[in-house]
Design brief:
The complex is a heterodimer. Chain A is of the alpha+beta class. Chain A has a domain at 58-357: YVTN repeat-like/Quinoprotein amine dehydrogenase (Methylamine Dehydrogenase, Chain H), CATH 2.130.10. Chain A has helices at 10-13, 36-53, 369-384, 389-396, 402-427, 439-442, and strands spanning 58-63, 69-74, 81-86, 91-95, 100-104, 112-117, 123-128, 132-137, 149-150, 153-158, 165-168, 174-178, 182-186, 194-196, 203-208, 215-220, 224-229, 237-241, 245-250, 257-262, 267-271, 280-282, 289-294, 300-305, 310-314, 320-324, 332-337, 343-348, 352-357, 444-448. In chain A, helix 2 packs across helix 3 (369-384) and helix 2 (36-53) packs parallel to helix 4 (389-396). By secondary structure, chain B is of the alpha+beta class. Chain B folds into two domains: 5-344, YVTN repeat-like/Quinoprotein amine dehydrogenase (Methylamine Dehydrogenase, Chain H), CATH 2.130.10; 363-443, no CATH class. Chain B is built from six helices and 28 strands. The chains are: A alpha+beta, B alpha+beta. At the A-B interface, helix 2 of A face helix 1 of B.
């Protein structure tokens, strides 16, 4: 007869020396862990609460400019460098890690309105209200350790009209300026190689397509968004919206799509091939959206607004995922996502650049593997129970400054009133005479080919 | 299989054979015991006030003390550092050194104690038939309910959903959650008083024993008896692997669902010294050991195949170090479940509520129902009656009447449906001139006479 019984010797189940790791044994039998779902729900709830507690998005402010920051440019070749231009003609290169000025680019007489760097990161192009375009040599990082120095421009091109924006081709030697007309420049020429105009109004922003190097989108003060193709002699397409578009950003992962930051406090995502209707309307801002920039992942974008807030949206969501504000931050004129998608920089009227985390409760610094696993687990659990009312309430809640909170509720009341009035008008008129409007189509007045 | 414990001891290794022992303590008996979650620690309580805390792995006595009054029940709280004892008038909490930490007066004279370790709820049943739920982390009394079914000496927690089941002297078992004053389930299990009760670790089976010499196994998904065994049991316990131990008098019987069948049959038997009265049997978690508390102390016997061989370090670790225990205490406090999560079906959390709307039966279904009703009426046997009342003509007429009666509700419903649809059609008919009007003005236009 053979009898088997459980017999555990201590040596087999404990560590030999105190330096060893403790031994771990697993048994995934569900009978050993009852109420698994309840436990997960409680963990999700706690994770949501902890996220709220650890939400400290503001990393630091970078001051140095003596007038409002009007434009910024990322250095594509150097992760922690960012250029900023201000309304008094000052251009600075910042080091995001130390949050200090690395060097200055003096020369502009009036406000700097556009900044961009070439893809290799060697050349910086700036333009401004003094009707000049300046090309600068960007100091290479090894020299950056020396005391802050001043850089002389490579070239200065003077034109007749003030410039409002500039953007460099993603892959190539060309850059485009927007002003009275859209000019295409080459690095090596002192005159524009090409000029476009459609109508008499000033173009206020310009962006090259990340996928197709010859396509660019501009917006102008006649409320239009125009798409140009450099291979054609004339502009390709144009739509006129009910309000002016302040800035445009192409989605780097889906290069046929772009999002326009509009004066009516919404952002509109368009498919460039099909401009008769917006793909998505991103609401939530309370005043004109001044600037927009996509994350390199293409899944979200950041906007800065005249209502003194910075918001982060999912590329396909109607409402913002996150809102950033501080007491001292004034009107935000320019925002940029960092090239590693983990930080956001905003430049505002109060002469400061501000550095924010893209995920408010993210832990900075090196994570241990166990820590990272735990974060991933909590994220997964939170995602699983995000629809339960208690979790949803905590995840959605944001504390807002009083003026913004009040303005938001006022706006809600106004929108409700408009909707109600519309419904009543429809009820009291001949059936079919007032069609229902879609916000995605409603704000597009005209499409011109 | 009739295995004497001596025969088993001869076959097993020396480490396991040490797990067979008898502790004779004739003065302060009958003993009851409770194991910690990992099965490493045991607390034994003699009715006359003897409390002993033991480390079963090293076989040493951690602490032994006398409380000098009746102890009816004892449980470990979340780890072996704290234990609760139901004494003559109140419930007391002790730490492992035997220091009295709290006196829980609100519970009263408690007969049975249970601890819900995921919720940190101490549950007690007192002599007046009141059920108390107390959160031991905050000290808040979560629930205090009168069962209204009299005094009860059996209470168990269903490990699947942490619902507390109480067995009453009337033969009913009532199941309670801490957030409702009415029982979730009340089921009549026995004709006489209930003596013992136990839950299978997967929570689907419940075993009950009654005074009328019956042990019943219940399926808790259907609330039906699946097996009735004859026999008396003063105490019952399920092991991790699903063996059922029953104890009565001086005899312990182990039942098991053997050879792939779902029916419980005799697996082993064991008799202790004649005259000893068994008070409590309980399987030691993660070990093939059954502890028997009786009037003369306690004994421990080997039951091969009863325990779960593979433990999970993160659930219950018999080899836990002090650091691991402290860590686990913090973790379990972070994951403490609110009392609302105790419900009959705990998998419902996070799922979608089913649609309450009734689905209308189709025409075929209605016809089939009518058919079956008519068939049923026709096949009903007629009574044999005298004095000419069973004449064929009378029987035929009677049958017709019955069929008509059976059809009537269906026909009524049909006519009602037709009426309704007619009304609906009339309401939807609008005149030409009405159609041209705006929606807001339609109600002012004349109705079209029908």
């Amino acid at each position: 007869m053979k009898v088997k019984v459980i017999s555990r010797s201590t040596d087999e189940f404990t560590r030999e020396r105190s330096q060893d790791l403790q031994r771990v044994f697993r048994n995934f039998d569900p009978n050993l862990r009852s109420q698994e779902k309840s436990v997960e729900y409680v963990r999700a709830l706690n994770a949501a609460k902890l996220d709220k507690i650890f939400a400290r998005p503001f990393v630091g402010a970078m001051d140095g400019h003596i007038d409002a920051v009007s434009c910024m440019a990322k250095n594509p070749n150097h992760l922690k460098g960012i250029f900023s231009g201000s309304m008094d003609g000052d251009i600075r290169l910042w080091d995001l890690a130390t949050r200090r000025t690395v060097c200055q680019f003096p020369g502009h007489q009036g406000a700097v309105r556009g900044l961009t760097a070439s893809t290799d990161g060697r050349v910086l192009v700036s333009c401004g209200t003094d009707s000049t375009v300046r090309l600068w040599n960007v100091p290479i990082p090894s020299l950056m350790e020396s005391d802050d120095n001043e850089v002389k421009p490579l070239a200065v091109y003077v034109c007749k009209n003030a410039f409002r924006a500039v953007d460099h081709q993603w892959d190539g030697d060309l850059f485009a300026t927007a002003g009275a007309q859209v000019d295409i420049w080459n690095h090596n020429r002192s005159q524009p190689v090409n000029s476009f105009a459609w109508g008499n109004d000033t173009s206020i922003s310009v962006r090259f397509n990340p996928g197709e190097p010859n396509i660019l989108a501009t917006s102008s003060s006649d409320r239009s968004i125009t798409i140009y193709d450099l291979r054609l002699s004339s502009p390709a397409r144009k739509i006129i919206m009910s309000n002016k578009t302040n800035s445009i950003a192409w989605n780097p992962m889906e290069p046929m799509n772009f999002t326009a930051a509009n004066e009516d406090s919404n952002c509109y995502s368009y498919d460039a091939r099909k401009l008769d209707e917006a793909k998505c309307v991103h609401k939530d801002h309370l005043s004109a959206v001044m600037d927009i920039d996509y994350s390199p992942t293409g899944r979200e974008f950041v906007t800065g607004s005249y209502d003194r807030t910075v918001r982060i949206y999912q590329y396909n969501a109607g409402h913002s995922r996150e809102i950033y504000h501080t007491k001292r931050m004034q009107r935000v004129f320019c925002v940029k996502f960092s090239s590693d998608a983990s930080y956001v920089v905003s430049g505002s009227d109060d002469t400061n650049l501000r550095l924010w985390k893209a995920k408010a409760s993210e832990q900075l610094g090196v994570l241990l593997p166990r820590e990272r696993k735990n974060h991933e687990y909590l994220e997964a659990v939170k995602n699983r129970y995000k629809h339960l009312p208690e979790v949803k309430r905590i995840v959605r809640h944001r504390h807002l400054p009083k003026p913004i909170y009040k303005a938001a509720s006022l706006k809600r009341i106004q929108n409700d009133a408009i909707r109600k009035k519309d419904e009543r008008r429809r009820a009291h008129s001949t059936p079919g005479s007032i069609p229902k409007k879609q916000l995605r189509k409603d704000r597009i007045l005209k499409e011109v080919e | 299989m009739e295995d004497k414990q001596e025969a088993i001891a001869a076959e097993v290794d020396i480490l396991s054979s040490r797990k067979q022992f008898d502790i004779v303590l004739p003065d302060l008996g009958p003993y009851t015991m409770d194991f910690s979650l990992s099965g490493r620690y045991m607390v034994a309580a003699g009715r006359k006030g003897h409390l002993a805390l033991l480390d079963m792995k090293n076989m040493d006595l951690i602490k032994e003390f006398q409380v000098r009054e009746t102890v009816r029940d004892v449980v470990f709280l979340h780890n072996q550092k704290l234990l609760a004892a139901a004494q003559k008038k109140y419930v007391y909490m002790y730490n492992e050194k035997g220091t009295e930490m709290h006196c829980l007066k609100e519970h009263g004279a408690v007969t049975k104690l249970q601890f819900l370790n995921k919720h940190f709820l101490l549950t007690s049943m007192n002599k007046l038939g009141q059920l108390h739920f107390q959160d031991i982390t905050t000290g808040i009394m979560i629930g205090n309910y009168r069962t209204g079914l009299g005094r009860s000496d059996t209470m168990r927690v269903n490990p699947f959903n942490n619902v507390v089941a109480v067995g009453h002297s009337g033969g009913t078992v009532s199941m309670w959650k801490p957030t409702s004053a009415a029982p979730l389930v009340k089921m009549l299990c026995h004709q006489g008083p209930l003596t013992a009760m136990a839950f299978h670790p997967n929570g689907h089976l419940m075993a009950t024993a009654g005074m009328e010499r019956k042990i019943k196994i219940w399926d808790l998904r259907k609330y039906e008896v699946v097996q009735t065994l004859s026999g008396h049991a003063k105490t019952l316990d399920f092991s991790h692997k699903g063996l059922l131990a029953t104890g009565t008098g001086s005899f312990v019987q182990i039942l098991g669902a053997l050879n792939g069948s779902s029916d419980y049959s005799r697996y082993m038997g064991h008799s202790i010294v004649k005259g000893y009265q068994i008070r409590n049997v309980s399987f030691r978690p993660y070990e093939d050991v059954l502890a028997i508390g009786h009037s003369m102390g306690w004994s421990s016997i080997l039951i091969p195949g009863s325990g779960e061989a593979n433990f999970d370090t993160w659930v219950a670790n018999p080899f836990e170090t002090r650091k691991q225990r402290n860590e686990k205490e913090v973790r379990s406090l972070l994951d403490k479940l609110p009392p609302e999560t105790i419900m009959l079906d705990p998998t419902k959390i996070g799922s979608v509520r089913p649609n309450r709307k009734k689905v209308k039966p189709t025409k075929q279904e209605k016809d089939a129902e009518l058919e079956s009703a008519v068939e049923g009426a026709k096949s009903r046997p007629m009574k044999k009656k005298t004095k000419g009342r069973s004449k064929p003509s009378k029987v035929a007429r009677k049958k017709q009447e019955i069929v008509a009666m059976a059809k009537k509700p269906f026909l009524d419903e049909q006519s009602r449906d037709i009426e309704m649809s007619k009304k609906k059609r009339k309401r939807n008919e609008v005149g030409e001139d009405q159609l041209l009007l705006q929606k807001s003005l339609q109600r002012f236009s004349k109705k079209v006479p029908s």
